[in-house]
From TrEMBL:
SUPFAM superfamilies: Replication modulator SeqA, C-terminal DNA-binding domain (SSF82808). It comes from Haloplanus ruber. This is Replication initiation negative regulator SeqA. Residues 160-225 form the Replication modulator SeqA C-terminal DNA-binding domain. InterPro entries: SeqA_DNA-bd_C, SeqA_DNA-bd_C_sf.
Length: 231
């Protein structure tokens, strides 16, 4: 199951034009089950945002970090429930989006489908040494290297580089043109292009981004192979 920190609106009201929202911020390894539990007591709940932990952080650490940011913007707090005034929640969410990867239910479903229908190993706890893609072998030292080299190889022989910018999340870009790299948390330029790629991903997410780029340009997943070493 995918680990996420979530923000769920459990109630809201408007008074004299001012909107007040009660937001539950917590962590989950099964967001669909979490939503079912909340909906039993309140059918008016709304999933506002979800974030996945940074690769080097645990789910609990990510949750504590989001809580710390929420305290700066919330009007009141009761355990994991935060009360936000009009506009303050959006400012809070935009701040967290700069720190963590914002994902949608569609993103999670797509990642789950990718795991089911592609024979992809779990790369957690490994370091890549060689990436073989489109018949070429490249030595790499990190997952950020593997992602950058893989995407550069895909783009080298295609005309429409900008199409790769369509590989993105609901509220977060993964590939941007030069001049917008500040939109990324850990940008790295893709060699021989004017594009930058986000590299703040886990090992498995780096592989998924390469797969998504290959699919975008019509390449077969079978043309990707990554050789790893245990950390």
């Amino acid at each position: 199951m995918r680990e996420v920190v979530y923000a769920i609106r459990i109630s809201h009201l408007e008074y004299s034009g001012l909107k007040i929202m009660d937001i539950k911020i917590g962590k989950s390894t099964d967001i669909e089950n979490t939503l079912r539990q909340y909906s039993r007591g309140n059918r008016d709940i709304e999933l506002l945002d979800m974030w996945t932990p940074n690769p080097d952080k645990t789910l609990s650490t990510a949750e504590r970090g989001v809580h710390a940011v929420a305290e700066r913007y919330a009007y009141d707090k009761q355990s994991e429930k935060f009360v936000f005034l009009q506009g303050a929640y959006q400012e809070f969410a935009e701040t967290v989006n700069m720190l963590l990867r914002n994902v949608s239910r569609e993103d999670l479903a797509a990642e789950s489908t990718s795991s089911e229908f592609t024979d992809v190993d779990d790369y957690t706890g490994t370091t890549p040494s060689v990436i073989k893609i489109l018949g070429e072998m490249h030595d790499v030292d990190s997952w950020a290297d593997a992602l950058t080299v893989g995407v550069a190889t895909i783009l080298r022989d295609v005309d429409d580089h900008e199409r790769i910018t369509e590989v993105d999340g609901r509220t977060r870009s993964y590939f941007v043109e030069e001049g917008r790299q500040s939109d990324l948390f850990k940008p790295r330029q893709i060699p021989d292009t004017n594009l930058y790629v986000e590299t703040n991903f886990s090992a498995n997410d780096c592989v998924r981004k390469i797969e998504q780029a290959m699919a975008k340009y019509g390449y077969d997943r079978a043309e990707l192979e990554i050789f790893t070493e245990e950390v």
